[in-house]
Amino acid sequence: MSSIAIKENLVYTRTPLMTEKVLSFCPGCGHGVVHRVIMEVIEEMGLQDKTIGVAPVGCAVLAYEFMNVDMQEAAHGRAPALGTAIKRLNPDKTVFTYQGDGDLAAIGTAETFHACNRGENIVMFFVNNGIYGMTGGQMAPTSLEGMKTATSPYGRDVSTMGHPLKITELLAQLPGTYMVARHSVHTPANVRKFKKAVRKAFENQLEKKGTSLLEIVSNCNSGWKMTPTDANKWMEEHMFAEFPLGDIKMDGQLVQK
């Protein structure tokens, strides 16, 4: 028997910027993938000792348990305001917020719009699953027309409940936003596209370009009451029609479609 040791050819290892704590998100949820990608980019860019993340209320609040960088918890919807303060007091730090649709597009609408309008030099991650996930599956501003939720059991009626809010397109109109894009992480190809966008967003911040906002359309199989496989299929057939993937604003200019 040969005593020569064979070195293992590793093709993937867990980034040390993800803690060893087991993810507590529902099986099939996109949050865990988004977490991993953000942390991988921060590690690859060597920003781990300079990064401060802000996570508010909702499923997003769990980020500080899994992201092994400095994290600050914010009140519900107030992550952009807190991120603004942190960045202005520590301009040499890399600052990002991590928010859901109920947080960013509902209770935090004012903070979101004003931070983007001012062009605060931060990165904002916006996970849109069209529902309030943690608090019981209530209708969110992004819930689709006809979508059944805990507070719209017969489906969202736009005549009384309003239309789904395309807040990302609205934010792209503001002069302070430099990069606005919409992605997903439900396939390897989409994950690769999202990772490139994350790196670009952090590069924008290092270059003091203003606000970069990345929306991630995800599922909520628990809130939608579907299996993970069915939830991804439903997302492709329905969510993407209302919230199409792609670049909305790049280098400060709206992308013509």
C-alpha Rg, in Å?
19 Å
Instruction: Give the overall form.
Output: globular
Question: How big a fraction of the residues is strand?
Answer: 15-25%
CATH architecture: 3-Layer(aba) Sandwich
Following the backbone from N to C, one meets helices and strands in this order, namely: HEHEHEHHEHHEHEHHEE
Structural class: alpha/beta
Strand segment count: 8
Termini separation comes to 65 Å
Nearest-integer average pLDDT: 94
Write the CATH fold name.
Rossmann fold
Biggest sheet layout: 8 strands, mixed
Q: What features would you describe in this structure?
A:
- With 257 residues, the protein is α/β, with parallel strands linked by helices.
- The protein has one domain (26-254): Rossmann fold, CATH 3.40.50.970.
- Helices cover 37% and strands 17% of the residues.
- It has ten helices and eight strands.
- Helix 2 (63-66) links the parallel strand 1 and strand 2 (70-73).
- The protein is globular, with a radius of gyration of 19 Å.
